[in-house]
Design brief:
Length: 171
Amino acid sequence: MDSIYNLMASMDFPKMILFSTAMHINRVKSPDKVLDEVFMDLVLRFDAFLRRQHARNIPNKGLLIIDKAHEEKYRTLLASFQQGGTKYGQIRNVIDVPYFGQGEHTRMLQLADFCAHAVFRYYNNEDFTLLKKILPNFDRQTRTSPPDGLKHFINSFYDCQACSWCNERRT
Ligand SMILES: [Zn+2]
């Protein structure tokens, strides 16, 4: 695992840019809505990154690669985003048809799992060891800017790597 995280850490912008959204149990309104909310947030963060690149004259569309094992669930979610937009607005730069790949055949999906594991260990076990290595790879406007690519939904203030940058602290 160490070699994977070291490899990820060695991939400078823009070779690999990470995004993660975590939701604390106290923000969960209904358990079956958690996936909708964190997935929508993740897509919007990806879209915001693409818009920023667009403004820097690097126009690209983004492709979502999703684990085939969850194809049906995500198809339904994406269809509902496209019909009504999201509650934060329209998704403009993410291609509306995702690619569903099998984890064992798609290396980027495996790296996404490592990213998710590091974030999970950080929030669930207060273990910053893994996330610390790859935190610089999270999307941000400049090297010294806050990690826009890391979002933590929580009702109380929590001094984490995401919330400590946030101006709109919830109390
Ligand atoms: Zn936080």
